Amino acid sequence: MFSFMYLLVLFAGCNQIEGSTSEDNSEKIVRIGYQKNGPLVLLQSLGTLDERLEQYGFTVEWKEFQAGPLLVEALNADSIDFGRTGNTPVIFAQAADTPFVYVAAGFSKFKGSGILVPDESEITELEQLEGKTIGFAKGSSSHYLLIKALEKAGLTLDDITPAYLTPGDARVAFEQGTIDAMVVWDPFVASTELHSNGRLLVDGEGLTTDRDFFVATENFYDAHPEIVDVIIEEIDASSKWANSNHDELVEKLAPLLGIDEDSIRMSVERRTYGVEAISEEIIKEQQEIADIFYDLDIIPKELEIKEVIID
């Protein structure tokens, strides 16, 4: 079980929080980037972090992003101090020399990521994707999932026709029959299964862990490691709340995401929210993604993931 005592040891230089990190007790702001389909939206909606940081002289400024790549661009531009994204945008951030550090990881959510084909499709095996047009978001976690699925079938991206589409555009193309398959994540997977005659060919099991990652700018972490600790603790608390309160969670997420409750329920019931320290196993997972993306010329240089991990 994840121990925040261990996390506090992991975060070098962490000090006990006193009333405020500001010498003159003036109010400070922590800018947090989030996506509607990510765990930070739960934290925002519960309001617990805002309340807790008030006693330390900090207020929270929440900034919404439509996708992980946009969030890490904001991290690079120093427009946010902290954020959450998937397992591939952080690879691109490091490749772009963004001054950031991994703070913690989310639990694997591979069951909610996968390759979808129409119910009536003759495709029943990964090998049958050869020659097919497949929709996915370039550089996303789905991009990596597709690479690994094709590899398992003895295929490569050269054996399919890629259609680089956002989840929304891929859904339209899927429904219109202009693509043969779609690679995406929940709640889009669940919604397609329930409402667009989609069939899950494979999920991410054995292919990807599809983790969330929580990141901070180097400047903010160096200046306020204790505030980062508080944020992580509150993410952990909100995750535990989410796992124990599915009915309320569905009621919160459905209007925020504009997706029906049945799809949201399917999504949350096949996922466990949580946060854990960056382990050697997790570093290895990320290093494999970085190596594969470099080998395929998706990123311009080789990366050493440990360079952006807190010692």
What does this structure look like?
The protein is of the alpha/beta class and 311 residues long. It has 2 domains: 4-107 and 211-308, D-Maltodextrin-Binding Protein, domain 2 (3-Layer(aba) Sandwich), CATH 3.40.190.10; 111-203, 3-Layer(aba) Sandwich (D-Maltodextrin-Binding Protein, domain 2). It has 13 helices and 11 strands. The chain has helices at residues 4-10, 40-46, 48-54, 68-76, 89-95, 141-152, 167-176, 188-195, 218-223, 225-244, 246-257, 261-269, 280-295, and strands at 28-34, 58-64, 82-85, 100-106, 113-118, 133-136, 161-164, 181-185, 198-203, 213-217, 275-276. Strand 6, helix 6 (141-152) and strand 7 form a beta-alpha-beta unit. It is globular. The protein starts with a helix and ends in a 16-residue tail after the last helix. Residues 1-25 have low confidence and may be disordered.
Gross morphology is globular
Instruction: Report how far the terminal alpha carbons are from each other.
Output: 21 Å
CATH superfamily of the largest domain: Periplasmic binding protein-like II
Largest sheet: number of strands, sense, barrel closure: 6 strands, mixed
Total discrete domains: 2
Oligomeric form = single chain
Helix content: 40-55%
Q: What is the annotated CATH architecture of the largest domain?
A: 3-Layer(aba) Sandwich
Count of discrete alpha- or pi-helical segments spanning 4 or more residues: 13
Look up the CATH topology of the largest domain: D-Maltodextrin-Binding Protein, domain 2
Radius of gyration, in angstroms, nearest whole number: 20 Å
| Binned strand content | 15-25%
CATH class of the largest domain: Alpha Beta
Question: In terms of per-residue confidence, which ranges show pLDDT below 50 for 5 or more consecutive residues?
Answer: 1-25
Number of strands: 11
Strand order of the largest sheet: 2-1-3-10-4-11
